[in-house]
Design a protein that fits this description.
This is EAL domain-containing protein. Pfam families: EAL, GGDEF, PAS_4, Response_reg. Keywords: Kinase, Phosphoprotein, Transferase. The chain is α/β, with parallel strands linked by helices. The chain is built from 28 helices and 27 strands. The chain folds into four domains: 146 residues, 3-Layer(aba) Sandwich (Rossmann fold); 128 residues, 2-Layer Sandwich (Beta-Lactamase); 160 residues, Alpha-Beta Plaits (2-Layer Sandwich), CATH 3.30.70.270; 251 residues, TIM Barrel (Alpha-Beta Barrel), CATH 3.20.20.450. α13 runs antiparallel to α14. It starts with a helix and ends in a 10-residue tail after the last helix.
């Protein structure tokens, strides 16, 4: 039978056991093979439910898990692991990068967070570090347990304790300290004996540490506990954080004689205690705080921290009657790079841009990633516009040279708007807004430059007001047009549905597309009236085609979030349907996942009311949002529309097609209809047919068309336009 010591040796020498959890088989296998290449004992769990079963049957040193998994998600697996195997380390490997998810995972016990797609070497280094740390923690606990069981090991506690053990005399001079101080701080014990303990306190903590030891209320039942920074010796890291627990020594319980009193000072010891290194904990706390106020991709301050620093800088500038500048930076040509080379290369470009921009800054300046490819820069305490002008020129020049991204040479520029306090605004919001306005003036003049905000720029906001006025008149003058994009059965080549799409026949600007006016309609709350006109016209047109020989023709209508969230949404929609005697069973409304998840309870009730009337519900752009099986089960969903970005990924053997495979398989499993958007090529159509996705729409069958063209189209028995797009 093995002794306890032998068990410890066996436990510490065995190959670390790692549980890998993911609901995507290919990624699961790739991650497991990568870890096995480093001789780890790896167990694979396909999904959260299997992971929980494995945690009940076997002990693991480490678990790598995804967050977004059906049925049992990563947080539930973390809970199971914490309950059953508290010693099992947890690393999250997830595509979810929102701050709430990262923070929640760290609070639940995750030791690290790796974002998909991961770098193999970075992942292996992280695993090695966590496994090593877990081993040290387990070793520490075993040692502590053995020391507590036997008084015979007291000497071992002193000489081999992972903490610094010390004794002080009445005046605070060190009369004993164990040799742990040398491995942690670099001081030989002989060098410290006889010196006052403030000798190793960081200068910032000397007063607090000295006062704490002199407090009158310190006793055996009320020890002094405090966190301080201790200085290291020589070329080591300047300071480390320690938690010190100090007890008074009762002379009656330890009557010291000349032989037993504190060694190197010759004075009786009056305090004893331990100093525990908590540097890693403090660094972890700092890391969590960093994540709350920084962009994880570029490591720059985020919008919240930037605004906080700007507010403080405005206060100082106002008090000292100084100036400051705010710059709004927008990268030119970034979207082209992102769309052409992909988001991974786009992320690398943002990191490279950040590195160059930071080299142009002064000490005290704050560069922030405001969102997407937008940055903001705070220049406090400037003498005047010339200081800001000089920085702007440096920033523009810094981005002139090309960036190397893999085998690609990429060029980007930057458009910079500048607002100076107090001339361009006296509040945080005004300074940011006016810098943004100035930046758009740079964009309008050809990009890659800078401009200071001036009052005259506000005149150009009249264009926006003019467009808003024209849009209000358009609603009165019936200038809106409804175009229809056919939804086609690829097997029979027949039109089975029509998606209604709005256009604006502007009297001066010509035909405008939704991107030109829908954001303004949303902002000005005109989208409700606009949608009502579209629905009325679509019901008239499609109702006429239904009554003239196409009884199964389906009308698909997109609805905005503000419409769906309106308390009278169902009543208003059904009033329009009834007014045109349109058959509800032929109507399909399209909403996005985000609209549903914003208020699941309220939206689900409205959708159930609509479904009860016969109206069909479609999820638009499926796969780009939550993609949750939970709401698909709970709600009366009839159709999933595959987002065109996934359809575009269908090329010869591309991995992107796997997403389409998964969505189609999910739809079939849930007995839902499925429509693929953005079909443009024979290859895409053939691939979708092979998956069993037989309803498609896109330029392969032509663009959206006015009602007159649809009338001619429906007159034929089947589509003859498979190549007219």
């Amino acid at each position: 039978m093995a002794t306890e010591h032998n068990k410890d040796i066996l436990t510490s020498s065995r190959c670390p056991r790692i549980l890998v959890v993911d609901d995507e088989p290919r990624l699961l296998r790739t991650l497991a093979d990568l870890l096995r290449s480093r001789d780890y004992d790896v167990t694979e769990a396909l999904g959260g439910r299997e992971a929980c079963l494995q945690l009940q049957q076997k002990t693991y040193d480490l678990a790598l898990l995804d967050l977004n998994m059906p049925q049992v998600d990563g947080f539930q697996v973390m809970k199971e692991a914490n309950q059953r195997q508290p010693g099992c380390g947890l690393i999250v490997v997830s595509g979810e990068s929102s701050f709430n998810s990262v923070s929640r995972a760290l609070r639940r016990g995750a030791l690290d967070y790796i974002r998909k797609p991961f770098d193999p070497e970075e992942l292996l280094a992280t695993v090695e570090g966590v496994v090593g740390k877990q081993t040290l923690i387990r070793d520490h606990k075993r040692i502590q347990s053995r020391l507590e069981k036997s008084e015979a090991l007291h000497r071992y506690i002193v000489n081999s304790s992972p903490d610094i053990v010390f004794m002080l005399d009445e005046t605070g001079h060190i009369c004993f300290i164990n040799n742990k101080v040398e491995s942690l701080l670099g001081y030989p014990t002989a060098e410290l004996c006889g010196k006052h303990f403030r000798h190793i306190l960081d200068d910032r903590d000397v007063a607090r540490g000295t006062y704490a030891m002199q407090g009158p209320d310190i006793s055996a039942d009320n020890p002094r506990v405090l966190e301080v920074r201790l200085k290291t010796r020589g070329s080591r890291k300047a300071t480390r954080h320690f938690e010190i627990t100090a007890f008074p020594i009762d002379p009656q319980s330890w009557p010291q004689t000349g032989k037993t009193q504190g060694g190197c000072t010759g004075q009786p010891a009056r305090y004893y205690g331990i100093a525990r290194d908590v540097t890693e904990r403090k660094e972890a706390e700092a890391f969590i705080n960093f994540q709350a106020y920084h962009d994880l991709l570029t490591r720059l301050p985020n919008r919240a921290l930037f605004k906080d620093r700007l507010e403080l800088a405005i206060t100082h500038a106002r008090r000292g009657q100084q100036k400051l500048a705010v710059m709004f930076l927008d990268l030119d040509r970034f979207k082209v790079v992102n769309d052409t080379l992909g988001h991974a290369m786009g992320d690398r470009l943002l990191q490279a841009v950040t590195h160059r921009l930071e080299k142009c800054l002064r000490k005290g300046d704050t560069l922030s990633r405001f969102g997407g490819d937008e940055f903001t820069l705070l220049l406090p305490c400037i003498h005047g516009p010339e200081d800001a002008r000089g920085i702007a020129r440096k920033l523009i020049q810094a981005l002139k040279a090309p960036f190397q991204l893999g085998g690609h040479e990429v060029f980007v520029g930057v458009s910079i708007g500048i607002s100076v306090f107090p001339e361009a605004g006296e509040t945080m919001d005004m300074l940011i807004q006016n810098a943004d306005i100035a930046m758009y003036h740079v964009k309008a003049r050809g990009k890659d430059g800078y401009r200071f905000y001036s009052d005259s720029m506000s005149i150009n906001t009249a264009n926006r007001l003019s467009l808003e006025r024209d849009l209000r008149l358009a609603l009165e003058r019936n200038e809106l047009r409804v175009f229809y994009q056919p939804q086609v059965c690829s097997r029979s080549n027949r039109v089975v549905g029509l998606e209604a799409l709005v256009r604006w026949q502007h009297p001066e600007r010509g035909l405008l597309y939704p991107r030109d006016f829908l954001p303004l309609a949303e902002e000005t709350r005109l989208v409700g009236k606009l949608s009502e006109q579209v629905i009325d016209q679509a019901c008239r047109d499609v109702g006429r085609w239904i009554s003239t020989g196409h009884p199964d023709l389906r009308l698909a209508v997109n609805l905005s979030p503000s419409q769906v969230e309106h308390p009278r949404f169902v009543e208003t929609l059904m009033n329009h349907v009834s007014a045109h005697q349109f058959p509800p069973a032929n109507l399909e409304i399209e909403i996005t996942e985000n609209v549903i998840m914003n208020d699941l309870e309220q939206i689900s009730q409205k959708l159930k009311e609509l479904a009860a009337t016969g109206v069909r519900i479609a999820i638009d752009d499926f796969g780009t949002g939550y993609s949750s099986l939970n709401y698909l089960h709970r709600l009366p969903i009839h159709t999933l529309k595959v987002d065109q970005s996934f359809v575009k990924a269908i090329r010869g053997g591309d991995d992107g097609a796997c997403i389409v495979n998964a969505i189609v398989a999910m739809a079939h499993g849930l007995k839902l209809e499925i429509v693929a958007e953005g079909v443009e090529t024979d290859d895409q159509l053939t691939y979708l047919k092979s998956l069993g996705c037989h309803q498609v729409q896109g330029f392969f069958y032509g663009p959206a068309r006015p009602a007159a063209d649809i009338t001619s189209l429906l007159a034929g028995d089947a589509l003859s336009l498979a190549h007219t797009g």
